[in-house]
């Protein structure tokens, strides 16, 4: 499955293909209780997802994020395991996952040793618009995939006519697999 994520300012629009109306919409904001968070709604306006920062020490940025799958009343804590290699771990449905950032905006998700998703985002953007995509196995939850994409994007937007964001330049814990394709 593939979803396209389009951002304009603080708002997000998630599409199944680039020409159809959004299937999910959302936005990020600063909340006095949660701090930085993102909220998402299905096409009927029902809240389905909330992403927020879990632990954030004074120096170094977030060490965990919370992905609240509202329809399941399930909160998943995504914990940073290695800042220098941009490696995160979490459990969902009693299964271990690993989430990796690669050079640029590329990211990948593994369930055990098997890759189940890959993500990317445009480097150059026009105006306040960002765009990216996530490709994932059909048995993965759209809300979880979207939550992972958003946790590393919320709080950012482009200003000006043209912007360039080159993304991650850290060391790598795992190489990007450009040839991976999802299971249907």
Question: Could you describe the 3D structure shown?
Answer:
The protein has a 12-stranded antiparallel β-barrel. It has a two-stranded antiparallel sheet with strand order 12-14. The protein starts with a strand and ends in a 20-residue tail after the last strand. 5% of the residues lie in helices and 49% in strands. It is built from 1 helix and 14 strands, in the order βββββββββββββαβ. The protein has one domain (2-164): Porin, CATH 2.40.160. Strand 4 and strand 5 (47-53) form a beta hairpin. The longest helix has 10 residues, at 142-151. It has one helix at 142-151, and strands spanning 2-8, 11-15, 24-31, 35-42, 47-53, 64-69, 74-82, 87-92, 95-101, 107-111, 114-121, 124-126, 129-136, 162-164. Mean pLDDT is 85; it is low at 160-167. By secondary structure, the protein is mainly β.
